[in-house]
TrEMBL record:
Keywords: Membrane, Transmembrane, Transmembrane helix. This is Cytochrome C oxidase Cbb3. It comes from Flavobacterium hibernum. Pfam families: FixH (PF05751). It comes from the Bacteria. The chain crosses the membrane at residues 6-25.
C-alpha cells in the first residue's frame, strides 16, 4: 500500500496530538506534579491588596525595623529594643512556594524582643516569611525571603 503526502501529514498530526494529550493526562492525574494555586481564595485575597500595601508602607516608614534572619538555630525575628515586647501582637506565616504542605503559622510571642522558630520545623530551601503584626494599634506587614541550608 502506498501512502501519499496528504495521508502522511494527517498521520503525523494525529500522532503529535496523541503525544501531547498523553502528557497532559499524565500531569493532571499524577500526584507527583502538584499544580495548586498559590492562594486558595485568589479574588478574596486580591480585594484586600490596598490594605496590605498600606501595612507594608507602615513597616517601611519605621525608623527601627524588625529583622528576620536565618542562623544555625533557626529563623530569628528580632524587634528593636524601643518596642515593648508585650505590646507587639500578630503572627508569622512561613510559606513554602514549592509545597504548601510545609506552610505554617506561628503567633508572635517575644522573649527579650526576639522570637526564634526552631530549625527542626523548617525544610531546606526557600521560605517566604510574611509577618503581620501590630503595635500600639497600628498594623504592619513585613515580608522577607530566607533560604534554609
Amino acid at each position: 500500500m502506498k501512502i501519499n503526502w496528504g495521508t502522511g501529514i494527517v498521520i503525523a498530526f494525529a500522532l503529535f496530538m496523541t503525544f501531547i494529550l498523553y502528557f497532559v493526562f499524565e500531569v493532571q492525574s499524577n500526584s507527583k506534579y502538584d499544580n495548586d494555586l498559590v492562594v486558595e481564595e485568589y479574588y478574596k485575597h486580591d480585594s484586600h491588596f490596598q490594605e496590605e500595601m498600606a501595612r507594608v508602607q507602615n513597616a517601611h516608614d519605621l525608623q527601627q525595623k524588625p529583622s528576620i534572619a536565618y542562623n544555625e538555630s533557626g529563623v530569628k525575628v528580632s524587634f528593636p529594643a524601643a518596642f515593648e515586647s508585650d505590646k507587639v501582637k500578630g503572627n508569622i506565616l512561613l510559606y513554602r512556594p514549592s509545597n504548601k504542605k510545609f506552610d505554617f503559622n506561628t503567633q508572635i510571642a517575644l522573649t527579650n524582643s526576639v522570637l526564634l522558630i526552631p530549625k527542626d520545623k523548617l525544610v531546606k530551601g526557600r521560605w517566604d516569611v510574611n509577618m503581620e503584626w501590630q503595635y500600639n494599634g497600628k498594623k504592619y506587614l513585613s515580608k522577607e525571603v530566607i533560604y534554609v541550608n
